[in-house]
């Protein structure tokens, strides 16, 4: 789908920093990224949301100028990655999916080493490292080796490291995957700070809560394609109902129950989805559906009314869950 | 454009302005290879962790080889053969082991460290996230390997001279040839290492490549002692060319033309290796 009408919304007035037209990445016969169009503007937080294998990381690697596109056009900061990769990379910050820290070096040394790749003078590199250690909330561990640090600490250090060159665009490939909830929140807090300071953030995630929290605008990707684009709120409004009723029935009973639920809900339900472990009823008023279901004599094990999320949008658009 | 964007991001996260941003920007795309020094700096910094044990083994290696082969075995050889190699065996074997030692260092530094930087510690990927090109990343690492070769070969030369196994000032040139020999092995092996999915094949490089070469390519006895059919295999090995020239130089009256020919052959290996590594590094790291 090509920029489905939503291009004009949100932050369309900022300068365009990343622009992709028909961007494609093939590995042999496999098409990882299939003809996508993307525009990212200065100062916005832009997300690629999709399950594993959707093509998010391949897209990020092309934007990071470490993977040449197989087709289409890509401009970053007004430059062509094929010809000006090093020049573009000098102005990007990259948080790769897997940390590339040197675990034998100290926290501080990791920052200095990395700053030197950017040609930053030794003196400035040490000053910057000291400040970024503080930003990463690792001041007490500045001189300790990286290896024994927790996953969350290493991730914060990786983010701090990506800031040594004061990047104009910060690329974050699944920044919080594998972290516990507390570490995720600590990390989000750091990203919020950067966002407030006007850093352009581009991130991939398969967590819908992360996308909702951090992104001004996002694209939903599935099997290499963009299936929807917009702000989290507009995507939910466009593709899902206001509320969702989640019903769990005794084991293996969901499919049969779904038919009865549909009949019971009648016009109150816009749509009914059957998942392996639960039945979802989409409608403007979940409470009303719950009453109707109860009145019809159905007795689910659990009943939950909640707001629609990006997870529901994804389910609607692709028929699959984000995280399996 | 850049001048106007100082506000939010400079000192992002930090509060104070540190004048790094402008230093980090590039006005034009640099020539591939011109930023290799930045990669080299990493390897040197990382070496500070292990230099003690590394210096120790650089000193130990000539002591062990020259002690056991030069002066231990050498006594037997000299007594038994009536000087079949023309000079005391210690003087014969020392330049050979000098070259072989460089070969061994060149290969060790180009196998596991390269695999680690691709797959385990992933230092190459960290470098490539910034302005460095694949060629910078490769040349920076190669420069470090060459420095290691200089180190082990100089130490070998000094210890050998102290033990009396090197007697001519031409040994200085032999040390340089040993470094070239190490590089002739290092570059193709780096190319190979970067193309491997894991380190399983490195064992075979050592077992079926390095050890036979070490034993039969002229380090311990002249190649013309080998059956005629096998000799050409030794002649193809860079190590044979290195042992010949190192020996010729270290014994003090070199045939410089022959040495130049051998060095040309070593250089060819090194250059072909660089070209091959530039390809395999790019294929592996930038896909």
Percent of residues of chain A in beta strands? Answer: 25-35%
Number of helices of chain B: 13
Terminal Cα separation of chain A, in Å? 25 Å
Cα(first) to Cα(last) distance of chain B is 31 Å
Number of domains of chain A: 2
Annotation keywords:
heterodimer, A: 324 residues, alpha/beta, Rossmann fold, Alpha-Beta Plaits, 35% helix, 26% strand, disordered N terminus, B: 287 residues, 71% helix, 0% strand
Q: What does the secondary structure layout of this molecule look like, with pairings?
A:
The complex is a heterodimer of chains A (324) and B (287).
Chain A: E1 16-27, E2 30-41, E3 45-49, H1 56-63, E4 71-76, H2 81-89, E5 92-95, H3 107-117, H4 122-135, H5 151-161, E6 169-173, H6 181-196, E7 200-205, H7 208-214, E8 217-222, E9 225-230, H8 232-239, E10 243-248, H9 254-265, E11 271-274, E12 279-283, H10 286-295, E13 302-307, H11 310-318
Parallel strand pairs in A: 3-7, 3-8, 5-6, 6-7
Antiparallel strand pairs in A: 1-2, 1-4, 8-9, 10-12, 10-13, 11-12
Helix pairs in contact in A: 3-4, 5-6, 8-11, 9-10
Chain B: H1 6-9, H2 21-24, H3 36-47, H4 51-81, H5 89-108, H6 112-120, H7 123-128, H8 134-162, H9 171-195, H10 202-216, H11 231-236, H12 238-250, H13 256-285
Helix pairs in contact in B: 3-8, 4-5, 4-8, 5-8, 5-9, 5-12, 8-9, 9-12, 9-13, 12-13
């Amino acid at each position: 789908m090509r920029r489905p009408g939503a291009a004009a919304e949100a932050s369309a007035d900022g300068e365009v920093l990343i622009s992709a037209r028909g961007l494609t990445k093939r590995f042999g016969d496999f098409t990882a990224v299939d003809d996508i169009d993307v525009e990212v503007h200065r100062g916005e937080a832009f997300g690629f949301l999709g399950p594993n294998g959707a093509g998010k990381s391949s897209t990020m690697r092309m934007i990071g100028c470490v993977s040449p596109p197989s087709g289409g056009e890509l401009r970053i900061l007004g430059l062509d990655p094929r010809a000006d990769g090093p020049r573009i990379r000098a102005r990007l910050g990259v948080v790769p999916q897997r940390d590339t820290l040197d675990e034998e070096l100290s926290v501080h040394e990791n920052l200095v080493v990395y700053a030197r790749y950017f040609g930053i003078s030794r003196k400035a590199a040490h000053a910057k490292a000291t400040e970024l250690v503080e930003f990463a909330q690792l001041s007490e561990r500045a001189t300790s080796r990286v290896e024994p640090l927790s996953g969350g600490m290493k991730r914060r250090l990786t983010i701090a490291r990506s800031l040594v060159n004061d990047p104009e665009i910060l690329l974050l490939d699944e920044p919080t995957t594998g972290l516990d909830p507390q570490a995720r929140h600590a990390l989000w807090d750091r990203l919020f700070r950067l966002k407030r300071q006007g850093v352009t953030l581009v991130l991939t995630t398969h967590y819908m809560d992360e996308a909702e929290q951090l992104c001004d605008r996002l694209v939903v990707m599935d099997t290499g394609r963009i299936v929807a684009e917009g702000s989290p709120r507009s995507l939910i409004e466009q593709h899902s109902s206001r509320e969702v009723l989640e019903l769990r029935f005794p084991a293996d009973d969901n499919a049969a129950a779904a038919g009865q639920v549909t009949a019971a809900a009648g016009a109150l339900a816009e749509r009914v989805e059957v998942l392996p472990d639960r039945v979802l009823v989409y409608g403007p008023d979940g409470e009303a559906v719950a009453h109707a279901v109860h009145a019809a004599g159905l007795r689910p094990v659990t009943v939950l009314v909640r707001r629609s999320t990006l997870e529901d949008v994804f389910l609607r658009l692709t028929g699959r869950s984000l995280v399996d | 454009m850049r001048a106007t964007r100082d506000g939010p991001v400079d000192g992002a996260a930090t509060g104070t302005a540190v004048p790094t941003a402008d230093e980090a920007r590039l006005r034009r795309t640099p020539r591939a290879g011109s930023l290799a020094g930045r990669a080299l700096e990493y390897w040197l910094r990382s070496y500070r962790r292990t230099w003690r044990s590394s210096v120790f083994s650089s000193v130990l290696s000539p002591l062990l080889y020259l002690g056991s082969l030069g002066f231990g075995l050498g006594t037997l050889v000299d007594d038994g053969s009536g000087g079949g190699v023309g000079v005391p065996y210690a003087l014969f074997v020392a330049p050979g082991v000098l070259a072989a030692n460089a070969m061994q260092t060149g290969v060790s530094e180009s196998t596991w460290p390269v695999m680690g930087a691709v797959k385990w510690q992933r230092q190459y990927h960290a470098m490539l996230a910034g302005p460095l090109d694949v060629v910078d990343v490769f040349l920076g690492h190669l420069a470090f390997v060459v420095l290691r070769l200089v180190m082990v070969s100089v130490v070998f030369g000094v210890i050998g001279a102290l033990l009396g196994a090197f007697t001519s000032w031409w040994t200085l040139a032999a040390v340089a040839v040993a470094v070239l020999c190490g590089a002739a092995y290092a570059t193709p092996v780096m190319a190979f290492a970067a193309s491997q999915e894991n380190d399983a094949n490195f064992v075979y490089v050592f077992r079926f490549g390095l050890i036979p070469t070490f034993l039969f390519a002229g380090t311990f006895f002249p190649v013309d002692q080998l059956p005629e059919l096998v000799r050409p295999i030794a002649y193809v090995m860079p190590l044979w060319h290195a042992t010949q020239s190192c020996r010729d130089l270290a014994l003090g009256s070199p045939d410089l033309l022959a040495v130049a020919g051998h060095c040309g052959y070593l250089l060819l290996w090194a250059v072909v290796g660089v070209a091959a590594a530039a390809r395999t590094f790019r294929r592996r790291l930038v896909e």
